[in-house]
Amino acid sequence: MDIFSAQYARQLDEQDPIKQYRKRFELNDPELIYLDGNSLGALPTSTPERLKQVIDKEWGDRLIRSWNEGWYDRSQKIGAKIARLIGAHPDEVIVADSTSVNLFKLAYGALKLQKGKSKIISDQLNFPSDIYLLQGLIELFGQQHKLELAKSEDGISISTEAIDSLLDDDTALVTLSHVVFKSAYMYDMKTITEHVHHKGALMLWDLSHAVGAVPVDLNGCNVDMAIGCTYKYLNGGPGALAFLYVRKDLQEKLTSPIWGWFGENNPFEFGLDFSPAKGVRKFLAGTPPVLSLTAIEPAVDMLNEVGMDKIREKSLSLSNYLIALFYEVLQPLGYRLGTPTDAGYRGSHVSLKHQEAYRICKALIDKNIFGKSVIPDFREPDNIRLGITPLYTTYSEIFEATEQLQRIVKEKLYTQFSAARDEVT
Amino acid sequence: MDIFSAQYARQLDEQDPIKQYRKRFELNDPELIYLDGNSLGALPTSTPERLKQVIDKEWGDRLIRSWNEGWYDRSQKIGAKIARLIGAHPDEVIVADSTSVNLFKLAYGALKLQKGKSKIISDQLNFPSDIYLLQGLIELFGQQHKLELAKSEDGISISTEAIDSLLDDDTALVTLSHVVFKSAYMYDMKTITEHVHHKGALMLWDLSHAVGAVPVDLNGCNVDMAIGCTYKYLNGGPGALAFLYVRKDLQEKLTSPIWGWFGENNPFEFGLDFSPAKGVRKFLAGTPPVLSLTAIEPAVDMLNEVGMDKIREKSLSLSNYLIALFYEVLQPLGYRLGTPTDAGYRGSHVSLKHQEAYRICKALIDKNIFGKSVIPDFREPDNIRLGITPLYTTYSEIFEATEQLQRIVKEKLYTQFSAARDEVT
């Protein structure tokens, strides 16, 4: 059967062993193909009810009493559930603040612990916010500190050698995204972490594009620290709280620079001298936003129920299918693949490059053209990112999106749109 | 008529010019008297519907498109509404992170700007989390920096002289709570700010116990910086996001140490060199939690509709009534007043002290004794805090709570409870 056919895609959907999970998301618009779960995950069907309970019962009825009835420990309890997805112990992960603030806290702690060493290493494909944070820390620590970014030869991947060439005895910290936001390049976490440790540096992984999308084994890779967001593949809702991981034996040594009462040992004794909480709780700062915190739980439960191995299997099956279609019908039209062909180094989205990427995205989204709106996201200057969320993305959606990508260029349908960047995101 | 009577209280309720607002909160339990709005504000009746819209429509249906349809500017838009409550310009306030993280960002910025000066001044009645944060900053800036706490003579108030005596040319920053969390002592913001400026120091006010409870005039007092939480008198829900204020002309000079993408000038261009956003937006860091952010708006709208003058009038009428009842029936039983008698220096809660405060609180909360649960909060070692939220607290509730306080001690009803601290909060 021709792989570029609706029938073939439908057949793959029918054979999908986890196809039943699609129904557990509020994706009911027949005119929408949502391929942006790598930016904002869809709404799980059980989340509104859970939030109604938090709003009406926990806040409305029980009021302040809820702090003793579940709120106080919730950051740790949901953290422990996320821990199962990333190969960590339950007491090594906590939900707190934003990814940016968590990176600040842990990277600061790492630099303080590594006093005398002055270098931070990241890479030029890292998510800019992470790089901004590190630039801010360089400013904070002063002129003797410096940030070096490993370069990419192909704009898609960063070689282990590129990291190795920057590593030296003066390196305090290496912080990288496990899955790179534009290209979906996935680092070999074990190898990189080993090399970093070999030079006496600490390793901090940003799991934002990895958690819930690919299996992660923080303990198995002996990772020191990690951070990640929950609004992508964890489907925690817009701006949902982030999480952080600190390896058990490092928790006592590492200190957060933000000494807030939720990170204090006995916050409700209201003593005047800060004493950090024991364990991972010390990395909390202020009172956690309970609504945005609770919203994370339903999809995390679902991911644990399915298991990351099945998630990965479906993810790669979908991205392999998309890449096969790319070679078949898109490459001849000037599209380029911005994602590793080697599945072992690929996360769960596929980036297609085209010089008209911005206008192509506009055409994909406009449902007047084909009667269906396909939502990817555009990333400057020429990336069309197609997110694959194994719990709800279907083969038929991948097929239809590819068909639209083909026709938009073939029939020059993008020319009716302006290339002016008229939206904030 | 006897002021210590249910009839008198009912009469006051009937005459209350803003009594209709009580109905706009979900306070439907006839067996509950909630006097803890100074810790967690009650749920406004319009909030669940607003949140349902965010969850089902903005997240569920519109998905990532909502960033262009209202999410991106929401931190600023709600900030502008809060600005009206605290005498600030719309572009001087933004909703972001937690109170702790905001204090960290602004106090760090202030210390950096005041390079060469080494002293931070606060007071020993300040909320401990604020003091912890400042201790963390002292640790961060190094040994030449120091924190000095103004002392209280009476455990209730801090004299202007106590602040003055610590102020000198080496003072970089003074940070105080406008309304003190235990005693409800309210500083004379204008005088203190003037004295601080006279010595060349910067002034940062924590408005957590003031915003929505008392009129605040940041611009009129020429205040440099302010922070505050929204889950108390702004009724934004558990752990709702905090806000921060930076005076317009100071915004360009002050820098945040946490360089996150939402504080960047063009976050969606994904450039690799951080350039701070113009204006107050530069103090954002990561992606804001939209659910907990949106929950703030309904009550802020309500407060703006009523106006802070009427709020203050009702607040003082209620606290004066409570204090009158205290003198009448509680003082003779060993209760002491932990709150200023001078209304000009009083926020919107009343603290009663008693050596059996913890067990008295247990008895108040237990509804088996009088058929009604009165919820205050206990603050170590001997404070019973009775929160007065002008939008929903009634005179009858104040009367009934006082009656319970009287009987609990008179009839030694507290003795059936243990003094062991068995709950987290």
How does this model look, in words?
Two copies of one chain form a homodimer. Chain A has 425 residues and is of the alpha/beta class. The first copy, chain A, folds into two domains: 6-45 and 307-416, Aspartate Aminotransferase, domain 1 (Alpha-Beta Complex), CATH 3.90.1150.10; 70-305, Type I PLP-dependent aspartate aminotransferase-like (Major domain) (Aspartate Aminotransferase, domain 2, 3-Layer(aba) Sandwich). In chain A, 36% of the residues lie in helices and 13% in strands. Chain A has 13 helices and 13 strands. In chain A, helix 1 (6-15) runs antiparallel to helix 13, helix 3 packs parallel to helix 9 and helix 10 (308-330) packs parallel to helix 13. The longest helix of chain A has 23 residues, at 308-330. Chain A is globular. The model of chain A has no long low-confidence stretch (mean pLDDT 97). The interface between A and B is large, with 85 and 85 residues.
